[in-house]
Design brief:
2 strands; binds magnesium ion; binds 3-methylbut-3-enyl trihydrogen diphosphate; 13 helices; mainly alpha
């Protein structure tokens, strides 16, 4: 477990009481809606329609980018910026870059050479509509347009490729530790970038950043474990993407390695660890606290 409780100061009972009162007052669905509107407006201007020679490519980029989705990574960036007292707008461009990178990863993840999926965000996948060549380029375009806004990178020296790239891990018996590494790289890294980038733009100090990094790493892992569970438990029509595919493809997932019940318990435990990292933050971190619960209780 990478986030031991001992590294986090326990909240006093007065703090706990105020957290409970704030949690009762905090309207998460409304917060998610309002932030998503802001992000989608900014995304639409960041990748404007074009009738020039690259019009078809831009159309493909916008097709996947403007198809909805939870917008969780950019919302986390905004929430982290707000949690340290920064203005929401300070992290808006960065937040949109994250969503573009995330969307690029979905477009490529669905390609025939990867997970070979035909449904995403309730729509036919990018390559089904535009063809593989345009889908590859649309992903590249989203990544390239977003890239200048990102800082930092993760290093994985000395770790076998199949523990970093999940298609190479198909059919491989991974240990739980290797699987944690894989999930942390494929999903957790973008959560850490979302939260830490947003917090930096909001003026976070280094102690706050370290706590927010712990929060985001635990949250990212919890989120991917929940994604693995949703694949097992939910229907395709509900998810808007094909379910029951991971087992069929021999994917390394938490349910396949430690079982459904232990996966669910671990996801909840990680969400709690994430919240504990926020114990020293005031009510402006309420969105982040609520998002930790959302990440593991969601059914979509
Ligand atoms: C799906 O991410 C891919 C994973 C990393 C599990 P989301 O569940 O956030 O997908 P959208 O953005 O809501 O479509
Ligand atoms: C997430 O893993 C991979 C990405 C980072 C895109 P999955 O392959 O499980 O994501 P879904 O289930 O197709 O959204
Ligand atoms: Mg995949
Ligand atoms: Mg996939
Ligand atoms: Mg999945």
């Amino acid at each position: 477990m990478p986030h031991p409780k001992s590294s986090v100061e326990p909240a006093s009972s007065a703090d706990e009481a105020s957290v409970i009162i704030n949690a009762m007052a905090f309207d998460l669905p409304r917060y998610l809606r309002e932030r998503a509107v802001l992000i989608e407006h900014h995304l639409a201007i960041s990748v404007p329609e074009s009738d020039g020679p690259t019009g078809r490519l831009i159309e493909a980029m916008r097709y996947s980018l403007m198809a909805g989705g939870k917008r969780l990574r950019p919302i986390l960036a905004l929430a982290a910026c707000e949690a340290v007292g920064g203005p929401t707008e300070a992290a808006l461009g960065y937040a949109c870059a994250l969503e573009m990178i995330h969307t690029y990863s979905l477009v490529h993840d669905d390609l025939p050479c990867m997970d070979d999926d035909d449904l995403r965000r309730g729509r036919p996948t990018n390559h089904k509509v535009f063809g593989e060549a345009i889908a590859v380029l649309a992903g590249d375009g989203l990544l390239t347009d977003a890239f200048g806004l990102l800082v930092g990178s993760t290093q994985s020296a000395g770790i076998p490729a199949q523990v970093i790239i999940d298609t190479l891990a198909e059919g491989q018996p991974l240990t739980q530790q290797e699987l944690e590494h894989l999930h942390s790289k494929k999903t957790g890294a973008l959560f850490v970038a979302s939260v830490c980038g947003g917090a930096r733009l909001g003026g976070a100090g280094s102690a706050q950043l370290q706590l927010l990094r712990d929060y985001a790493a635990a949250l990212g892992l919890a989120f991917q474990i929940t994604d693995d569970l949703l694949d097992v438990e939910q229907a395709t029509e509900h998810l808007g993407k094909r379910s029951h595919k991971d087992l069929q493809r021999g994917k390394a997932t938490y349910p396949s390695v430690i079982g459904i019940e232990r996966s669910r318990a671990l996801a909840h435990e990680l969400a709690q660890h994430a919240c504990q990292a926020l114990a020293g933050f005031d009510s402006r971190a309420e969105a982040l606290r609520m998002l930790a619960g959302f990440a593991v209780e969601r059914n979509l």
